C-alpha cells in the first residue's frame, strides 16, 4: 500500500525503492479520531445531535475535557495513548455548557440558562473531574459566550453576550480560592460603561500580566482591559480588500472575484506574546496579527481561501457568506517555535503557522479537522494538538462530531494526499468521482468532478508521481462551446484517440438523462449516447457509475439495483460503441447495514475490476473493496432478458487503507484506476465540503501485494 506515511519507504512505479525526503522540521500528522457519541452514558439517546463548543486539557495532558451545549454535558476523553483515545465519562450540567477550562483537577464550565423570551441567564460551574460531579456554581446573570483562566490560576473571566433585559455585553471576573469559586468576589465590567461604542464580546483571552483581550465581532472591535478592569486600549479591527476569492454561490469555484472594504469581524482572539495579539476574522476570511497598540503587524488577506482551494476544501456554497470562515485561533510554543493554529469552520481545516517573525508568519501545513472545527487544544510537552468539531450530521445519516488528535513528529505530512498547489492560475477542484490512467504514461491519471459543480463539469489531469499528487490541468466539459449543462460525471476512460469516454448519472426526477459521452482532449463533447428504453425505463436515482473499455467494448456500472433487478444484484452493462448494441450481466453485491453499490471500474490484463462500497462511514462501514470479475464463459444478455450472474473475487479490502489516515472511515470511495504494472490508484469523493469533512484521500497499492479471496455469487 502506498500511503504517504511519515518516514515510510514507498515502492515507485519503476520499482525502485525511494524514501521520501523528510521535512527539515517536525510536522503534525493525525493519529486518531474519537467520535463523541462513544462517550455517552448507558441509556442515552445516541441519535441526538451533539455540539461540542469548546475543549480544554488537564495539567498532565492525559485527558481532554469538552463541553457539549446540545446534550447539556461535559465529556472527558482519556488520551494517555493518543493513538487510541478512550471514553472517560461525562458530567451532566445545569444549562447548556458553551465553554470549559481546566485548572489542576478542576474543570470550570460556563453554561447558558437563557430561555425563549426571557432575560439572558447563565451560570459558572466548578466540576470535580475525578469524581465527575459539580462542586459549586456562580450565577452570572447573563448569557455566557466564552471563558478564560488567568495563567496563575487565580481568576476566571467570562464574556457575557447579554444579560438582564439588556442586549449589551459585559465581562465578569471571578476569583478562585484554591479550586473553589469565590462567587462573592465576582466583579462585572460593563463594556458600555467603559465606552458607548462597546457592545457584545465574542471571545476573551488573558495576557501574561493578567490583562484581558476582548473581541467584539459585531462591532468589529478589539478591547484590552488591564488587570484592574480599566481600558488599556481599544481599536477598530478595520477592513480588508480581498482579491482572488470566490464571491458567488453558483456551483463553480471561481477564485477571481474581489471584495472591497470587508470588515474583519474578529471572532476568536489569542495572545502570541506580551506584545502581539492574533484574531481569527470570520468576516474577512483570514487572520490578523496585531501589535498591542492596535497596529497591524500582519494580515493573511486571501491566503487561507487560496490554500483551501489547493487542497479541495473550499466550501463553494459559502462563497457569499465568508468562504472558509476562520473562527478559531490557538497559540502555543512547540520546541521553542511560536506557533499559530487557525481553524476554518466552513473549510474544515486547521492551518499551522510558524510565527517566529510576527510580521511574516510562515504557513507550515494544513490539517484535516472534521466538520466545523470549533476548538483547539495544544499539549506541547507531549507534542500533541487536538481539535473538536461541532458539525453533527446524524440527522442526515452523516458523520458525527469528533475529537481529532495530531502528533508533532519527524517525517512528512500525511495530508493532503492530492493538491493543485503550483498551478498557475490556481486550479479549483473537488468531488473527484472517478479515475483512469493515461494510456501512454502510467504516472498520469485523469479524474472528473460530479454534479455538485454542475456549472463547470471538469476533467482533471493528475501527476501521480509527486507526493502529494498534483492536479496539473483542468478541462471544462463543453457542449457547443459552452460548459455542458445537466451532467453528473461519474466515470472516465481513454477512448484511445486522444479523448475520453465519460458517463453521466441521470436523475429521473430532475429530467437529467443518463448519458455516455465521447469528448476530445479539451473536453468538447463530440458524441452522446443515451441508454435504451429497456434499461432507462427501470432506472432509479442511483445510476451510471464508472466506465471502462475492454476488447473494444465499453463496460458501464449501474450503482444500485433498479426496478427490474432482484435484491443483491446490480447491472454491468456492455456497449459496443461502433454499433450501439447493448448487453447486460448481473453483479452480486455484498450485504451491509446500509446500501451497497458500485462506484467505478478498471481494466487490467484483460480482466474487469470493480470498486464496491457501502454508504456508511466510521466504524459502521463494512464494505469498501476492489473485486475482479470473472467474465470467462459468461455471455451477456440483451436488456430485458434473463441476465447471467458473474462471479467475483475480492482482491483488496480498503477499510484498513482508509483507517490509516487517522480520521474516521470515509464513505465515498469513488475512483479506481490500474496501470499496466499493476499499481492500483484510488480516490475518495469529498462531496464538495457540503455536510462532509471535505477530505480527499488519494492513494495506491499494488495487485501483487493483495491476497485475493473469492466471494460466491
TrEMBL record:
Gene3D superfamilies: YVTN repeat-like/Quinoprotein amine dehydrogenase. Keywords: Signal. Residues 37-59 are annotated as: Disordered. InterPro entries: Mesenchyme-surface_protein, Phytase-like_dom, WD40/YVTN_repeat-like_dom_sf. Residues 1-24 form the signal peptide. Residues 427-687 form the Phytase-like domain. This is Alkaline phosphatase.
Amino acid at each position: 500500500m502506498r500511503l504517504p506515511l511519515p518516514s515510510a519507504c514507498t515502492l515507485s512505479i519503476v520499482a525502485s525503492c525511494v524514501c521520501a525526503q523528510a521535512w527539515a522540521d517536525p510536522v503534525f500528522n493525525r493519529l486518531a479520531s474519537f467520535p463523541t457519541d462513544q462517550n455517552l452514558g448507558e441509556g442515552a439517546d445516541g441519535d441526538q445531535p451533539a455540539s461540542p463548543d469548546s475543549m480544554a486539557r488537564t495539567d498532565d495532558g492525559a485527558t481532554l475535557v469538552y463541553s457539549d451545549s446540545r446534550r447539556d454535558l461535559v465529556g472527558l476523553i482519556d488520551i494517555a495513548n493518543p493513538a487510541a483515545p478512550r471514553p472517560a465519562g461525562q458530567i451532566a450540567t445545569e444549562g447548556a455548557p458553551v465553554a470549559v477550562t481546566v485548572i489542576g483537577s478542576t474543570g470550570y464550565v460556563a453554561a447558558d440558562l437563557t430561555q425563549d423570551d426571557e432575560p439572558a441567564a447563565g451560570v459558572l460551574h466548578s466540576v470535580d473531574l475525578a469524581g465527575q460531579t459539580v462542586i459549586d456554581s456562580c450565577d452570572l446573570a447573563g448569557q455566557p459566550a466564552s471563558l478564560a483562566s488567568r495563567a496563575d490560576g487565580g481568576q476566571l473571566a467570562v464574556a457575557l453576550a447579554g444579560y438582564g433585559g439588556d442586549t449589551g455585553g459585559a465581562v465578569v471576573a471571578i476569583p478562585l480560592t484554591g479550586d473553589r469559586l469565590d462567587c462573592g468576589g465576582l466583579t462585572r465590567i460593563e463594556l458600555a460603561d467603559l465606552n458607548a461604542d462597546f457592545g457584545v464580546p465574542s471571545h476573551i483571552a488573558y495576557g501574561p500580566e493578567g490583562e484581558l483581550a476582548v473581541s467584539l465581532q459585531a462591532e468589529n472591535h478589539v478591547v484590552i482591559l488591564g488587570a484592574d478592569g480599566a481600558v488599556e486600549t481599544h481599536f477598530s479591527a478595520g477592513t480588508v480588500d480581498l482579491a482572488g476569492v470566490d464571491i458567488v454561490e453558483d456551483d463553480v469555484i471561481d477564485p477571481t472575484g474581489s471584495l472591497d472594504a470587508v470588515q474583519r469581524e474578529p471572532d476568536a482572539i489569542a495572545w502570541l506574546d506580551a506584545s502581539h495579539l492574533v484574531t481569527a476574522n470570520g468576516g474577512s476570511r483570514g487572520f490578523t496579527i496585531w501589535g498591542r497598540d492596535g497596529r497591524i503587524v500582519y494580515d493573511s488577506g486571501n491566503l487561507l481561501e487560496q490554500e483551501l482551494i489547493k487542497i479541495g476544501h473550499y466550501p463553494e456554497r459559502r462563497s457569499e457568506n465568508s468562504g472558509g470562515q476562520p473562527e478559531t485561533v490557538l497559540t502555543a510554543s512547540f520546541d521553542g517555535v511560536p506557533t499559530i493554529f487557525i481553524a476554518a469552520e466552513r473549510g474544515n481545516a486547521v492551518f499551522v503557522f510558524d510565527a517566529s517573525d510576527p510580521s511574516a508568519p510562515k504557513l507550515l501545513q494544513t490539517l484535516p479537522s472534521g466538520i466545523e472545527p470549533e476548538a483547539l487544544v495544544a499539549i506541547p510537552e507531549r507534542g500533541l494538538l487536538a481539535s473538536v468539531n461541532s458539525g453533527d450530521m446524524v440527522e442526515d445519516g452523516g458523520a458525527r462530531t469528533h475529537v481529532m488528535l495530531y502528533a508533532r513528529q519527524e517525517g512528512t505530512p500525511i495530508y493532503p494526499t492530492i493538491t493543485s498547489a503550483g498551478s498557475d492560475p490556481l486550479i479549483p477542484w473537488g468531488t473527484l468521482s472517478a479515475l483512469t490512467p493515461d494510456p501512454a504514461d502510467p504516472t498520469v491519471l485523469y479524474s472528473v468532478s460530479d454534479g455538485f459543480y454542475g456549472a463547470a463539469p471538469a476533467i482533471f489531469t493528475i501527476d501521480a508521481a509527486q507526493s502529494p499528487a498534483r492536479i496539473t490541468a483542468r478541462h471544462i466539459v463543453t457542449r457547443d462551446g459552452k460548459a455542458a449543462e445537466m451532467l453528473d460525471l461519474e466515470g472516465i476512460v481513454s477512448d484511445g484517440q486522444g479523448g475520453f469516454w465519460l458517463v453521466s448519472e441521470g436523475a429521473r426526477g430532475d429530467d437529467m438523462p443518463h448519458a455516455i459521452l465521447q469528448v476530445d482532449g479539451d473536453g468538447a463533447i463530440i458524441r452522446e449516447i443515451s441508454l435504451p428504453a429497456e434499461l432507462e425505463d427501470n432506472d432509479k436515482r442511483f445510476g451510471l457509475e464508472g466506465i471502462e473499455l475492454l476488447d473494444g467494448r465499453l463496460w458501464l456500472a449501474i450503482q444500485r439495483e433498479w426496478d427490474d433487478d432482484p435484491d443483491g444484484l446490480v447491472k454491468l452493462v456492455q456497449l459496443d460503441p461502433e454499433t450501439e448494441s447493448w448487453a447486460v450481466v448481473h453483479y452480486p453485491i455484498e450485504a451491509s447495514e446500509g446500501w451497497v453499490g458500485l462506484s467505478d471500474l478498471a481494466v487490467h490484463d484483460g480482466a474487469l475490476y470493480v470498486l464496491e462500497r457501502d454508504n456508511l462511514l466510521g466504524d459502521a462501514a463494512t464494505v469498501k473493496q476492489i473485486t475482479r470479475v470473472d467474465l470467462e464463459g459468461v455471455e451477456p444478455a440483451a436488456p430485458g432478458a434473463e441476465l447471467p450472474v458473474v462471479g467475483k473475487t475480492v482482491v483488496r479490502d480498503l477499510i484498513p487503507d482508509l483507517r490509516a489516515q487517522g480520521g474516521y472511515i470515509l464513505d465515498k470511495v469513488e475512483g479506481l484506476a490500474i496501470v499496466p504494472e499493476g499499481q492500483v490508484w484510488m480516490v475518495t469523493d469529498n462531496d464538495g465540503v457540503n455536510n462532509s469533512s471535505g477530505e480527499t484521500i488519494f492513494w495506491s497499492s499494488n495487485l501483487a501485494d493483495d491476497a485475493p479471496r473469492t466471494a460466491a455469487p
